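Hi there, hope your week has been kind to you so far. No rush at all, and the record is pasted right below.
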Amino acid sequence: MTDEPYDVLIVGGGPAGLSAALNLGRALMRVLLVDADRPRNAATLVSHGFLTRDGVPPHELRRIAREELAGYSNVEVRTRQRVFGIDETDAGFSASLGRRSPEETVTARAVLLASGLRETLPDVPNLRGFYGVSLFSCVACDAWDLRGRRLALIGESADLAARARLISRWTDALTVFTHGSDAIAPDEEAELLAQGIAVERAPITELRGEKGVITGIRLEGGAEHAIDGGFVQPCWDAELGYLQGLAPDADEAGHLVVDRSGRTSRAGVYAAGDIASPGPQQLMVAAGAGARVAAVIVHDAVGITTTH
Protein backbone atom coordinates (compact mmCIF):
# COMPACT_ATOMS: atom_id res chain seq x y z
CA MET A 1 0.00 0.00 0.00
CA THR A 2 1.23 3.51 -0.83
CA ASP A 3 1.37 5.42 2.47
CA GLU A 4 0.96 8.98 1.22
CA PRO A 5 -2.59 9.58 -0.05
CA TYR A 6 -3.32 11.31 -3.31
CA ASP A 7 -5.54 14.36 -3.16
CA VAL A 8 -7.71 12.97 -5.96
CA LEU A 9 -8.00 9.59 -7.66
CA ILE A 10 -9.48 9.88 -11.16
CA VAL A 11 -10.97 6.73 -12.68
CA GLY A 12 -11.02 7.00 -16.46
CA GLY A 13 -8.77 8.72 -18.99
CA GLY A 14 -11.24 10.05 -21.53
CA PRO A 15 -11.83 13.77 -22.12
CA ALA A 16 -13.59 14.25 -18.77
CA GLY A 17 -10.87 12.56 -16.72
CA LEU A 18 -7.99 14.14 -18.64
CA SER A 19 -9.51 17.62 -18.44
CA ALA A 20 -10.08 17.23 -14.70
CA ALA A 21 -6.50 16.01 -14.19
CA LEU A 22 -5.11 19.05 -15.98
CA ASN A 23 -7.14 21.52 -13.95
CA LEU A 24 -6.54 19.73 -10.64
CA GLY A 25 -2.84 19.59 -11.38
CA ARG A 26 -2.74 23.31 -11.97
CA ALA A 27 -4.48 23.75 -8.61
CA LEU A 28 -1.51 22.00 -6.92
CA MET A 29 -3.48 18.84 -6.24
CA ARG A 30 -1.60 15.54 -6.16
CA VAL A 31 -3.52 13.47 -8.71
CA LEU A 32 -3.53 9.84 -9.83
CA LEU A 33 -5.41 9.07 -13.06
CA VAL A 34 -6.02 5.39 -13.81
CA ASP A 35 -7.16 4.43 -17.31
CA ALA A 36 -7.89 0.98 -18.74
CA ASP A 37 -7.10 2.40 -22.20
CA ARG A 38 -10.21 0.90 -23.80
CA PRO A 39 -12.11 3.98 -25.03
CA ARG A 40 -15.65 3.58 -26.30
CA ASN A 41 -14.81 5.61 -29.41
CA ALA A 42 -11.86 3.38 -30.35
CA ALA A 43 -13.55 2.53 -33.68
CA THR A 44 -13.96 6.21 -34.59
CA LEU A 45 -11.42 7.44 -37.12
CA VAL A 46 -11.92 11.18 -36.52
CA SER A 47 -13.72 13.26 -33.90
CA HIS A 48 -15.75 16.39 -34.54
CA GLY A 49 -17.17 19.32 -32.61
CA PHE A 50 -14.10 19.86 -30.39
CA LEU A 51 -12.98 23.46 -30.76
CA THR A 52 -9.49 23.73 -32.37
CA ARG A 53 -9.41 19.93 -32.88
CA ASP A 54 -12.23 19.33 -35.36
CA GLY A 55 -11.36 16.28 -37.47
CA VAL A 56 -8.59 15.01 -35.19
CA PRO A 57 -8.58 11.25 -34.39
CA PRO A 58 -9.71 10.55 -30.81
CA HIS A 59 -6.48 8.71 -30.00
CA GLU A 60 -4.54 11.82 -31.03
CA LEU A 61 -6.58 13.93 -28.63
CA ARG A 62 -5.69 11.56 -25.81
CA ARG A 63 -2.02 11.56 -26.82
CA ILE A 64 -1.87 15.36 -26.79
CA ALA A 65 -3.62 15.52 -23.42
CA ARG A 66 -1.29 12.97 -21.83
CA GLU A 67 1.71 14.81 -23.24
CA GLU A 68 0.46 18.01 -21.62
CA LEU A 69 -0.12 16.25 -18.29
CA ALA A 70 3.45 14.95 -18.35
CA GLY A 71 4.55 18.52 -17.67
CA TYR A 72 2.97 18.41 -14.20
CA SER A 73 5.04 16.46 -11.66
CA ASN A 74 2.06 16.31 -9.29
CA VAL A 75 -0.10 14.43 -11.85
CA GLU A 76 0.50 10.72 -12.36
CA VAL A 77 -1.15 8.86 -15.24
CA ARG A 78 -1.30 5.06 -15.30
CA THR A 79 -2.58 3.45 -18.47
CA ARG A 80 -3.78 -0.10 -19.14
CA GLN A 81 -4.77 -0.43 -15.51
CA ARG A 82 -8.17 -0.97 -13.96
CA VAL A 83 -9.69 -0.01 -10.67
CA PHE A 84 -11.20 -3.18 -9.20
CA GLY A 85 -12.80 -1.69 -6.11
CA ILE A 86 -13.07 1.46 -4.01
CA ASP A 87 -13.87 1.56 -0.30
CA GLU A 88 -14.35 4.41 2.12
CA THR A 89 -11.84 4.82 4.96
CA ASP A 90 -11.44 7.17 7.89
CA ALA A 91 -8.97 9.25 5.86
CA GLY A 92 -10.84 9.15 2.57
CA PHE A 93 -10.84 6.24 0.12
CA SER A 94 -8.78 3.19 -0.74
CA ALA A 95 -8.74 1.69 -4.22
CA SER A 96 -7.39 -1.61 -5.49
CA LEU A 97 -5.92 -1.44 -8.97
CA GLY A 98 -3.83 -3.43 -11.43
CA ARG A 99 -3.83 -4.81 -14.93
CA ARG A 100 -5.68 -8.14 -14.89
CA SER A 101 -6.15 -8.46 -11.14
CA PRO A 102 -5.68 -6.25 -8.07
CA GLU A 103 -1.96 -5.65 -7.58
CA GLU A 104 -1.80 -2.52 -5.47
CA THR A 105 -3.86 -0.41 -3.09
CA VAL A 106 -3.73 3.38 -3.17
CA THR A 107 -5.45 5.94 -0.99
CA ALA A 108 -7.00 9.28 -1.90
CA ARG A 109 -8.89 12.05 -0.15
CA ALA A 110 -11.40 12.36 -3.00
CA VAL A 111 -12.46 10.30 -6.02
CA LEU A 112 -13.58 11.49 -9.44
CA LEU A 113 -15.42 8.87 -11.51
CA ALA A 114 -15.01 9.45 -15.24
CA SER A 115 -15.02 5.91 -16.60
CA GLY A 116 -17.69 6.59 -19.23
CA LEU A 117 -20.14 4.09 -20.66
CA ARG A 118 -20.07 0.67 -22.26
CA GLU A 119 -22.03 0.29 -25.48
CA THR A 120 -23.78 -2.72 -26.96
CA LEU A 121 -24.55 -2.59 -30.67
CA PRO A 122 -27.59 -4.28 -32.26
CA ASP A 123 -26.90 -7.87 -33.24
CA VAL A 124 -26.63 -7.18 -36.96
CA PRO A 125 -24.29 -9.26 -39.18
CA ASN A 126 -20.90 -7.57 -39.73
CA LEU A 127 -22.01 -4.30 -38.16
CA ARG A 128 -18.59 -3.84 -36.55
CA GLY A 129 -17.00 -3.88 -40.00
CA PHE A 130 -18.68 -0.55 -40.85
CA TYR A 131 -18.94 1.05 -37.42
CA GLY A 132 -16.82 4.18 -37.10
CA VAL A 133 -16.20 4.41 -40.87
CA SER A 134 -19.61 4.87 -42.48
CA LEU A 135 -21.99 3.98 -39.64
CA PHE A 136 -21.86 6.10 -36.48
CA SER A 137 -23.69 6.56 -33.19
CA CYS A 138 -23.23 10.30 -32.54
CA VAL A 139 -25.53 12.41 -34.71
CA ALA A 140 -24.10 15.74 -33.53
CA CYS A 141 -20.58 14.49 -34.28
CA ASP A 142 -21.04 12.93 -37.72
CA ALA A 143 -24.29 13.99 -39.42
CA TRP A 144 -22.63 16.98 -41.12
CA ASP A 145 -20.34 14.68 -43.10
CA LEU A 146 -23.31 12.57 -44.23
CA ARG A 147 -25.63 15.45 -45.10
CA GLY A 148 -27.85 15.04 -48.14
CA ARG A 149 -27.09 11.34 -48.61
CA ARG A 150 -29.21 8.20 -48.48
CA LEU A 151 -28.94 7.26 -44.81
CA ALA A 152 -29.96 4.37 -42.58
CA LEU A 153 -30.78 4.37 -38.89
CA ILE A 154 -30.43 0.94 -37.28
CA GLY A 155 -31.67 0.32 -33.76
CA GLU A 156 -33.95 -1.47 -31.34
CA SER A 157 -34.33 1.08 -28.54
CA ALA A 158 -37.45 2.96 -27.49
CA ASP A 159 -36.05 6.35 -28.57
CA LEU A 160 -35.50 5.26 -32.18
CA ALA A 161 -38.30 7.41 -33.62
CA ALA A 162 -36.98 10.53 -31.87
CA ARG A 163 -33.48 9.82 -33.18
CA ALA A 164 -34.93 9.45 -36.70
CA ARG A 165 -36.60 12.85 -36.52
CA LEU A 166 -33.29 14.37 -35.45
CA ILE A 167 -31.31 12.79 -38.30
CA SER A 168 -33.89 13.95 -40.84
CA ARG A 169 -32.53 17.47 -40.31
CA TRP A 170 -29.49 16.45 -42.38
CA THR A 171 -31.17 14.36 -45.08
CA ASP A 172 -34.50 13.84 -46.79
CA ALA A 173 -33.62 10.23 -47.69
CA LEU A 174 -33.71 8.34 -44.39
CA THR A 175 -34.81 4.76 -43.74
CA VAL A 176 -35.19 3.37 -40.22
CA PHE A 177 -34.40 -0.33 -39.75
CA THR A 178 -35.82 -1.87 -36.57
CA HIS A 179 -34.17 -5.28 -37.24
CA GLY A 180 -37.32 -7.21 -36.37
CA SER A 181 -37.94 -5.37 -33.10
CA ASP A 182 -40.98 -3.37 -32.02
CA ALA A 183 -38.87 -0.28 -31.26
CA ILE A 184 -41.23 1.94 -33.26
CA ALA A 185 -44.92 1.91 -32.40
CA PRO A 186 -47.53 2.08 -35.19
CA ASP A 187 -48.43 5.70 -34.38
CA GLU A 188 -44.75 6.66 -34.45
CA GLU A 189 -44.34 4.97 -37.82
CA ALA A 190 -47.28 6.96 -39.19
CA GLU A 191 -45.68 10.19 -37.98
CA LEU A 192 -42.35 9.28 -39.54
CA LEU A 193 -43.94 8.33 -42.86
CA ALA A 194 -45.75 11.68 -42.89
CA GLN A 195 -42.31 13.33 -42.61
CA GLY A 196 -40.92 11.27 -45.50
CA ILE A 197 -38.99 8.83 -43.28
CA ALA A 198 -39.35 5.18 -44.30
CA VAL A 199 -39.52 2.33 -41.77
CA GLU A 200 -38.39 -1.24 -42.40
CA ARG A 201 -39.29 -3.79 -39.71
CA ALA A 202 -37.80 -6.97 -41.20
CA PRO A 203 -34.58 -8.38 -39.70
CA ILE A 204 -31.36 -7.36 -41.42
CA THR A 205 -29.51 -10.31 -42.99
CA GLU A 206 -26.56 -8.51 -44.60
CA LEU A 207 -24.74 -5.19 -44.67
CA ARG A 208 -23.08 -4.69 -48.03
CA GLY A 209 -19.96 -2.70 -48.84
CA GLU A 210 -16.18 -2.77 -48.80
CA LYS A 211 -13.40 -1.50 -46.53
CA GLY A 212 -15.86 -0.12 -44.01
CA VAL A 213 -17.88 1.86 -46.56
CA ILE A 214 -21.45 0.63 -46.56
CA THR A 215 -23.43 0.61 -49.80
CA GLY A 216 -26.55 -1.35 -49.00
CA ILE A 217 -28.71 -3.30 -46.57
CA ARG A 218 -30.39 -6.62 -47.34
CA LEU A 219 -33.43 -7.73 -45.34
CA GLU A 220 -34.98 -11.07 -44.55
CA GLY A 221 -37.22 -11.86 -47.51
CA GLY A 222 -34.74 -10.43 -50.02
CA ALA A 223 -35.54 -6.71 -50.07
CA GLU A 224 -32.51 -4.46 -50.51
CA HIS A 225 -31.87 -0.79 -49.84
CA ALA A 226 -29.02 1.23 -51.32
CA ILE A 227 -27.54 3.59 -48.73
CA ASP A 228 -24.51 5.84 -48.45
CA GLY A 229 -24.01 5.73 -44.66
CA GLY A 230 -25.96 6.15 -41.50
CA PHE A 231 -26.31 5.72 -37.79
CA VAL A 232 -26.64 2.97 -35.23
CA GLN A 233 -28.44 3.36 -31.94
CA PRO A 234 -26.51 1.34 -29.32
CA CYS A 235 -27.61 0.50 -25.82
CA TRP A 236 -25.39 2.17 -23.24
CA ASP A 237 -24.72 1.23 -19.65
CA ALA A 238 -22.24 2.35 -17.04
CA GLU A 239 -19.87 -0.23 -15.59
CA LEU A 240 -20.40 0.30 -11.87
CA GLY A 241 -19.28 -3.05 -10.49
CA TYR A 242 -16.11 -1.57 -9.04
CA LEU A 243 -18.24 0.84 -6.97
CA GLN A 244 -20.00 -1.79 -4.84
CA GLY A 245 -18.03 -0.63 -1.81
CA LEU A 246 -19.40 2.90 -2.25
CA ALA A 247 -22.81 2.33 -3.86
CA PRO A 248 -23.48 5.92 -5.00
CA ASP A 249 -27.01 6.58 -6.22
CA ALA A 250 -27.75 5.77 -9.87
CA ASP A 251 -30.82 6.50 -11.99
CA GLU A 252 -33.03 3.98 -13.77
CA ALA A 253 -30.73 4.01 -16.80
CA GLY A 254 -27.70 3.21 -14.66
CA HIS A 255 -26.04 6.63 -14.80
CA LEU A 256 -24.65 8.07 -11.58
CA VAL A 257 -26.85 10.76 -10.08
CA VAL A 258 -24.96 14.01 -9.50
CA ASP A 259 -25.90 17.51 -8.47
CA ARG A 260 -25.16 20.51 -10.69
CA SER A 261 -21.61 20.56 -9.36
CA GLY A 262 -20.83 16.92 -10.11
CA ARG A 263 -21.14 15.60 -6.54
CA THR A 264 -22.59 12.11 -6.15
CA SER A 265 -24.64 10.94 -3.17
CA ARG A 266 -21.41 9.94 -1.38
CA ALA A 267 -19.38 12.74 0.16
CA GLY A 268 -16.00 13.07 -1.47
CA VAL A 269 -17.06 11.15 -4.58
CA TYR A 270 -17.64 13.08 -7.81
CA ALA A 271 -18.55 12.10 -11.37
CA ALA A 272 -18.10 13.71 -14.77
CA GLY A 273 -18.67 12.78 -18.37
CA ASP A 274 -20.91 10.07 -19.78
CA ILE A 275 -21.01 8.05 -16.54
CA ALA A 276 -23.06 10.83 -14.93
CA SER A 277 -26.67 11.68 -15.70
CA PRO A 278 -26.71 11.95 -19.49
CA GLY A 279 -26.29 14.96 -21.69
CA PRO A 280 -24.90 15.26 -25.22
CA GLN A 281 -22.26 12.53 -25.59
CA GLN A 282 -19.61 14.73 -27.14
CA LEU A 283 -15.91 15.06 -26.34
CA MET A 284 -16.23 18.82 -25.86
CA VAL A 285 -19.08 18.44 -23.37
CA ALA A 286 -17.24 15.75 -21.38
CA ALA A 287 -14.05 17.84 -21.25
CA GLY A 288 -16.03 20.82 -19.98
CA ALA A 289 -17.67 18.66 -17.32
CA GLY A 290 -14.25 17.47 -16.16
CA ALA A 291 -12.97 21.02 -15.84
CA ARG A 292 -16.06 22.10 -13.94
CA VAL A 293 -15.94 19.24 -11.44
CA ALA A 294 -12.21 19.85 -10.92
CA ALA A 295 -13.02 23.39 -9.79
CA VAL A 296 -15.67 22.06 -7.42
CA ILE A 297 -13.22 19.56 -5.89
CA VAL A 298 -10.72 22.35 -5.24
CA HIS A 299 -13.39 24.55 -3.67
CA ASP A 300 -14.62 21.70 -1.48
CA ALA A 301 -11.06 20.97 -0.35
CA VAL A 302 -10.66 24.48 1.02
CA GLY A 303 -14.18 24.73 2.41
CA ILE A 304 -15.73 27.05 -0.16
CA THR A 305 -19.37 26.20 -0.89
CA THR A 306 -20.08 25.67 -4.60
CA THR A 307 -23.65 25.11 -5.73
CA HIS A 308 -23.48 25.92 -9.44
About this structure: Residues 103 and 278 are 33 Å apart (CA to CA).
